[in-house]
Structures are given as structure tokens and as C-alpha cells.
Write a structure and sequence with these properties.
This protein is about 40% helix and about 25% strand. It has five helices and seven strands; from the N terminus they run βαββαββββααα. It has a seven-stranded antiparallel beta sheet. The protein is globular. The termini are far apart.
Length: about 280
């Protein structure tokens, strides 16, 4: 099963400002689920004048409860609420001279449940006019940047199991010596029902993924706008200072991750009461 989702919107900032904000977008107040970002590879092609970058994002992912019920027990390790760390690979190509950037991100975890491939194309708004000359931030609000996002959802959940059952049934049927018997003696065929059930589950997972992606795109745009505002009013220093504050808000002593860790630790202690003969 495959589903597609596409959307378009426009940033009220110049293309150089938007591309810079893209690479500085984590952390931001609307992306506390991102743990870290690492550059795996970055190279500039002097012939094509294009910048190629590959990055790895570590994020917190949460599988919807409806999907979690379909998964084997223990697939998420110690987690029982569907939360787990996951990795997303991001590849991008920037052509500053022509005024476009193409990006592609895809999940590396849970691909057997749902593969999400997001592609984005950023283009300078008015391509009929020459780009505004000057500093990066001097004319940041004098241009616009158009963005087109397309997302592909592919769920293969249950396919391996269904294929194994089908092969097993085909092998049993081919080796059976009673193939010429009447239909009354033949075992009932359940391939169609099993196939329909698997397809239904896959379709449900893809629909849930699409719904969550729509919500995530709204937050992603809002987060980018926060970074762009910081860039406009405070420059790179303002962006870095904002990133520091966001990191402390998310992972500091009073952040949600610290509270979640402490709550999990307390629950673990409560779930394992001390025995009277335990040593201090």
C-alpha cells in the first residue's frame, strides 16, 4: 500500500535566509522531540557550484496506541507507551546561484511498520527578477521563498507473515496427493481474507501517518519562522542563543525530558519494592 501527500506554502523571507534557517532549525521551541543533529557528510562541488549535505537526526518517536496494539510484545524494548528514540536521515542539495534547494528525509527505524519519505523543494519566489544583492540579512524580507512538500507513505506491516503463510499453503497444496478430490474434501482457501486483512491494517497505518504528518508540517513551518525571526533580529548570535535556551528548556533540570526520566525512575522503584533482607 502506498499513499501520497503534497502541500505548498511560502516563506516571507529571502532564499538565502530560508536555507540558512533550514540548517539551523534544531532545536527550536516547537521541536523538543529532536535530541541531536549530526553532519555525516558535506561537500561543495566547484564545477556545479552546489552544496551537498547529509545529516542524521535523533528524535523521539511515538507510535499511536491503535498501531501499538498490533505490534508484538516487546518490539519497543522497555517502552510500553510506544515512545522510543529513532533516527532520520536527511540529504540536501543547495544551488545558491540558481536559487533552489532540494531535500529528502526518511526514517531509518520502524520501516517494517511505516516508511515515510519526505521531499521538499525550496525556490526563490520571483525567478523573473534577479536576486537582490547585498548582505544575507540586509534584504531578508525583500523576497519570498516557495516550498513544495511531497510525502510518500509505505506500510509493509504484515506482508512478510502473509507471504510466509501463502508460500506454506502453496507448498502444502502442491505436495498434496488429494488434489484431484472433490471441493468438499478440499481445505477452504483463506488467502483472499488474509490478504484483505493485511491491506486494511496497512491502509490504517498509512492514514494515521498522513494525519500526523499534516500536523507536523504546520509545526515545522512555525518552528522555521521562529528561527527566521531570530536570524532577522539577532543574526547568527541570536539564533545560537535561542538554540541554547531551547536546549535548556527541553533537556535542562526543569525540562520535560528530565521530568519524564525522573517519573520513569520513580515508577521503576515503586514497581520493585525493597525486600526486608536487601542490603543497604
Amino acid at each position: 500500500m502506498v499513499k501520497f501527500f503534497e502541500s505548498s506554502f511560502t516563506y516571507d523571507y529571502s532564499f538565502p535566509a530560508v536555507t540558512l534557517a533550514y540548517f539551523l532549525r534544531y532545536p527550536n521551541p516547537l521541536a523538543h522531540h529532536v535530541f541531536s543533529t549530526d553532519v555525516i557528510d558535506r561537500r561543495f562541488d566547484p564545477i556545479t557550484q552546489k552544496l551537498h549535505t547529509t545529516r542524521l537526526h535523533q528524535k523521539r518517536s511515538r507510535i499511536p496506541p491503535a498501531v501499538l496494539k498490533l505490534l508484538p510484545t516487546g518490539i519497543l524494548g522497555a517502552s510500553t507507551d510506544g515512545t522510543a528514540k529513532s533516527y532520520v536521515i536527511e540529504k540536501s542539495v543547495v544551488d545558491v546561484k540558481q536559487g533552489w534547494m532540494e531535500t529528502e528525509t526518511r526514517n531509518l527505524e520502524w520501516t517494517g511498520i511505516l516508511s515515510v519519505i519526505e521531499k521538499q523543494v525550496y525556490r526563490r519566489g520571483d525567478t523573473n527578477q534577479p536576486p537582490v544583492q547585498g548582505g544575507l540579512l540586509e534584504h531578508a524580507k525583500d523576497e519570498t521563498t516557495d516550498v513544495t512538500t511531497s510525502v510518500t507513505f509505505v506500510s509493509r506491516f504484515g506482508q512478510a507473515r502473509a507471504l510466509g503463510k501463502r508460500r506454506k499453503a502453496d507448498t502444502a497444496a502442491s505436495s498434496s496427493t488429494s488434489s484431484s478430490e472433490t471441493d468438499e474434501d478440499s481445505p477452504p482457501k483463506r488467502g483472499f481474507l488474509a490478504s484483505w486483512s493485511t491491506a486494511s491494517v496497512q491502509r490504517t497505518i498509512e492514514i494515521m501517518g498522513m494525519r500526523r504528518t499534516r500536523e507536523a508540517l504546520v509545526k515545522s513551518k512555525e518552528g522555521m519562522n521562529v528561527v527566521l525571526e531570530r536570524l532577522l533580529h539577532g543574526g547568527l548570535v541570536g539564533v545560537v542563543e535561542g538554540m541554547r535556551r531551547d536546549h535548556e528548556d527541553a533537556f535542562g533540570p526543569n525540562g520535560p525530558w528530565k521530568r519524564a526520566w525522573q517519573q520513569g525512575r520513580d515508577n521503576s522503584i515503586d514497581a520493585n519494592p525493597r525486600h526486608p533482607f536487601d542490603e543497604d
